[in-house]
Every structure is written in C-alpha cells, then in structure tokens.
Amino acid sequence: MKKVIVIILAILIAASGGLLVYGAILGPAKTFVPEKDGVLLAPPANIYSEGKAAYDPSSALVQNASSDQIAEALVNVCYNHLRVKRYNFFCHVDSLSGNKYGCSDYFRIVQDGTDFFYQALTYASGTNTGVRHASMGNTRFDVTTFNVSYDRSTKTFDAAFPDPTPKETPGTPYNYYPDRPEVLFNLPLALADESGKTADYSVMANCSFDLALPSASAGYYTLELTLDPASVNASSETIRCLNDCMGGKMKNINVSALSFRFEIWGSGVFRKIDVNSEFTATVSGKTGSGKMTRAYEFSYTPEAGSILKQLKDADWEKFCPQKDKDILSARENSWIE
After folding, report:
1. Which residues of 19-32 are buried (b: 16+ CB within 10 A; e: fewer)?
2. SS3 of 73, please?
3. Which three-class secondary structure state does DSSP give residue 68?
C-alpha cells in the first residue's frame, strides 16, 4: 500500500506542473520570487482580439439558472480564453497520498490563443524536476532539468535549466484542446463528448451550485459548484480528463469528491479557479487514495502577458529566430496604449 501511495503521488505531481518562477529565472543558488503582475485585476476593455465580442456570463449566471445553463456558461468562459489578446495564469497544486506530501506551482503565458511560454517545478517525495516550454510561430523549445531543489520551510524552489535547442514544428499551444475548451486549464471536468462536437452535461446531474455577486462594485461573479460523485464516476470523459491531467497512468479511478469555485469577470474571463478532488485509483495493480487541490489566479496585463519579457529574463532571447522576436515585439508593442 505504501508503494502505491508514493506512485500515485508522483503521478499527481508530475502531471501538475511546478512552482511558478516568474521573474528571476536561472541560477542554482537563486530563490524564485513570482512577479504576479496584475493578478486578480480586472481585464482591460480591449482584452478581446479584434472582431471578437465579449461574452457576459451574467446572461446565464442568474439566480434561477439550471445546471445546463451553468455548464454552458463555463464552456463559453473557457472559449473566451482562446480569443483574448493575452493572459497569464499561476497555478498552485497540493497533493497528499497517505502521509506523503507533494506540491507544484506553474505558470503559463498565452498570446492570441496560440503562442505560449510555460514553466513548472515540482516536488514529490524527494524527487524534484523542472520543465520549460516555449512556442513562437513554428519555433518550439522543450527543456527538462533535474537540477532543482525545494525548501519546504519557505516553500521556494531553486533551479538551473540547460540551454534550449530550437526546433521547427507547426505552432500548437501547450496543452491546447481546440474542441475541449474546458480542458484548457487541466480542469477535471468534461462538458462534451470525446470529440468535443456534442455537448454532454450529464456530469452536472444532481450537482449543487451557488451563484453570488460579492458586491455591486466587485465586477465579477462567484460560482461554487459541487458535483455528485455518482455523476462524476458515470462520466467516462470526466474520468478520462482527471486521469489525463494527472499523468494518464491511473486505472479504476473512483471519485469521492469533486468541487470547484470559479470567479468570473463580467467581461467573461476567469479571475480565479479553485479545484478540490478526492479519489482512489489503481497503479501497478494496487489501489491507494489521493487528494489534490489546485488554485489558479489570472492576469491580463501587457507585462504579465509578455512572452518576449520572459524570454529575456530566462536568457533565452538569443536562441530565438529574429523573425519570431520581431513578430512578438510588434504584437506586444501594439498592446501599449
């Protein structure tokens, strides 16, 4: 049992990302301090790409909304993130299997729903790893490092990354499912069938939810959603999403609790997402239990959404083709009003 608990924990953390390190990036003797520029601030009025209309979730998030309306609103808000000019989100993950603790934080910058910069550091039962990915046009970087340490007392990581080797590949955003917008942020929630073409809100059956507007001036709604475990376990797509976002190596998953707390700006994009999940799963023929929480925070400022700034801070700019840097520079300069 102890062995399978450690295996489950390692899978959960490895698939979840690592401690966000936005700002001072490289160096084996550096403590990373995240620069959460603009986090939790309302998006600017021009956040959407040209020709795209904002979706106001208030049309669906009303006091007497049905569970299907709630599902539709969530899908629409997720789709909105594919059509904004840029955003950055930070995610902290905590996992506990038995008495084994693991954590990760990661951050991702996305521009126009295509180009991205992603970095993650991970601590799981004494095993520390780091990954960094970047995609600009047809240029892609993928780097992994094991030169990572974690201080549990201060909850900070130190890491050093090797230099990247650019490779040519068709531009595909990291972890981007074009027909499954609700999977965009690794949410263990499926509101469509496997193809993504057909809405399937069966996972919402017997759910409970609460909608609230914190204040007249808050500018965002809160949606607390608790799914019925029986409905979750009957939704093969949700179970598949749960497995996918936790490494894809678990079998016989049985969810005992799955709940979400969303904060949604009136313009139709996320402010915060909190996820709580509890389940059992089989790994290597043995079954153990697991708990995981995820906490997302979003930012929409030009500074937070600058891939070019992140490449400079990571000392990776010199590895980027000039044509890609020119495109990024022109795009990011257009955000400055």
Report:
1. bbbbeebeeeebeb
2. helix
3. helix
Q: What is the pLDDT of residues 42-85, one digit of tens each?
A: 999 888 887 666 666 666 666 678 999 899 889 888 888 888 89
Nearest CA-CA partner of 97 in 20, 1, 19: 1
CB 284 within 8 A of CB 290: no
Q: Are the beta carbons of 40 and 301 closer than 8 angstroms?
A: no
Local structure of 311: helix, strand or coil:
helix
User: What residues contact residue 156 under an 8 Å CB cut-off, 6+ apart?
Assistant: 19, 31, 32, 33, 150
DSSP 259: E
- Distance between CA 297 and CA 200 in Å, rounded? 27
Name the β-bridge partners of 291: 96, 278
| pTM attached to this predicted model | 0.87
Q: What is the DSSP letter of 183?
A: G
